[in-house]
């Protein structure tokens, strides 16, 4: 709701003060950079913790191959659906943006990627220059490679790797907490982006933005209800029941309270666990007992 209100305020502000609305572009750019800043560390910690938690490497290999095959097939279907929707609806037509006003670094990045399209160059580009350069460049393939190597190294440590694994879990919680703080800044980013768009291109740009958003949601609906729906049906459950399951099992799942024990049971356990010192018979008792035993024996012998 806050984001929608910020979008509406940004539209009005950009319409009334177009020159001033253009100056709010850094708000949208800053929010996008904050989100991109958190993607690589979150992916790294999540992948490392997920792989290192599986101690059986053979099972991990089987699951990894299946996951890779699933990713390739489903990604290909998603790209095909996106291409069909774009060619049918053409959501970008009518923007009429002057290329001179765009950032030239965007064209340079695509030009560098276009020069290396063969398989050997692609595989070599997955390997980062240093261990930490993958996080600097933000290349997710390089981050995944470093994540996999780190996870296998933690798994090979055995018992010594458990504290490290626990450390990655704690770092993941910190990163998700930071992402929660960043998401709270989404209204500012939406306000700045809409104020800049309306101030630069007028209210007519909103029609094209609405068409773009409609194309996006249509593509997402086709992918979720057709592709994922068929996969879910083949797995034995319905995609329409997943939201209900998500409401029933929320994250984090609260831990059940410890079972209450009856006071009598606690007392019995205390008696069992607490050893009692052996009882010692006084010497007088032993003497009297021996005397009685002797008298009884003498009386029996007389008989």
Description:
The protein has 303 residues and is an all-alpha fold. The N and C termini lie far apart (108 Å). It is built from 14 helices and no strands. The chain has one domain: Proton glutamate symport protein (Orthogonal Bundle). Helices cover 77% and strands 0% of the residues.
Q: SS-based structural class?
A: mainly alpha
| Beta strand count | 0
SSE succession: HHHHHHHHHHHHHH
Radius of gyration: 35 Å
Give the low-pLDDT segments. 246-265, 267-274, 284-303
What count of domains describes the coordinates? 1
How large a portion of the residues is in β-strands, by DSSP E? under 5%
The largest pleated sheet is described as:
none
Helix content: over 70%
Enumerate how many helices there are, as a single number.
Answer: 14
Query: Could you name the CATH topology?
Result: Proton glutamate symport protein
CATH architecture: Orthogonal Bundle
User: What gross morphology would you assign?
Assistant: globular
Instruction: Determine the CATH superfamily.
Output: Sodium:dicarboxylate symporter
At the first level of CATH, the class is Mainly Alpha
Measured distance between first and last alpha carbons: 108 Å
Residue-averaged pLDDT, rounded? 75
